[in-house]
Amino acid sequence: MIAIVDYGAGNIRSVKKALEHLGVEAQVTADPQVIAAAEKIVMPGVGHFCRCDVLNKNLRESILGAISRGVPFLGICVGMQWLFGGSTEAPETCGANLFPGECSRFPAEVKSPHVGWNRIHIHNGSKLMRGVENGAFVYYTHSYRAPVVTETIASTEYGGVFSAAVENGNVFGVQFHPEKSGPTGLKILENFCGL
User: At what angle do helices 182-193 and 12-21 cross, to 10 degrees?
Assistant: First the structure.
């Protein structure tokens, strides 16, 4: 069973529908015990980074414990940003610090939020991006972006280059919304579900 983490900031319904479309059993939960026992964890996120305060208070320990045991984890949008040290959007809110650096706002010279379809440029072969075409379009809606790091497996150009997806062992993150990214997004979710 895949646990979809509900911390009050996710696009949960769309993610659950996409997983059901793939024939995958998924449960929306805010229960630390259910999350700790899940085979895989998906953490969506929409909105302000400060919403991660609830996550840090109630679910951080169970999520990080599951990750340390090798449970595959996928963070989406703010869920990916949480994997970094934090965000300038809410400096007082800490991230999981599983990837180095912090997320920052798009520069003033580009329209923010960044909403709509944009290309991903796949850097290296990865489990998450297996079979995804380089230059494929995915759907974004965000005002803050993660830096490019060693673990970046796909990037997008908008007001500079930023991490579209990261991967390290059993930890994955995507800044875009795979549940709204058509066949490409479904392929990425399918890859995650098949881990």
Answer: 80
β-pair partners for 73: 41, 171
Q: What is the Cα–Cα distance from 54 to 62, expressed in whole angstroms?
A: 13
Say how far residue 51 (Cα) sits from the centre of its chain: 15
CATH number at residue 128: 3.40.50.880
Q: What is the pLDDT of residue 124?
A: 76
Q: What is the three-class DSSP state of 125? A: coil
Please give the helix or strand (H or E) that residue 2 lies within, else none: strand 2-5
Give me the number of domains the chain comprises.
1
The boundaries of the domain holding residue 144 are: 2-193
E strands present in 44-113: 73-76, 86-87, 102-105
Quick: pLDDT tens for 72-123.
999 999 999 999 999 999 999 999 999 999 999 999 999 999 999 999 999 8
Q: Is the peptide bond before 32 cis (omega within 30 degrees of 0)?
A: no
pTM: predicted TM-score of the whole model, two decimal places:
0.96
Residue 195 CB neighbour total at 10 angstroms: 13
Active site residues: 77, 177, 179
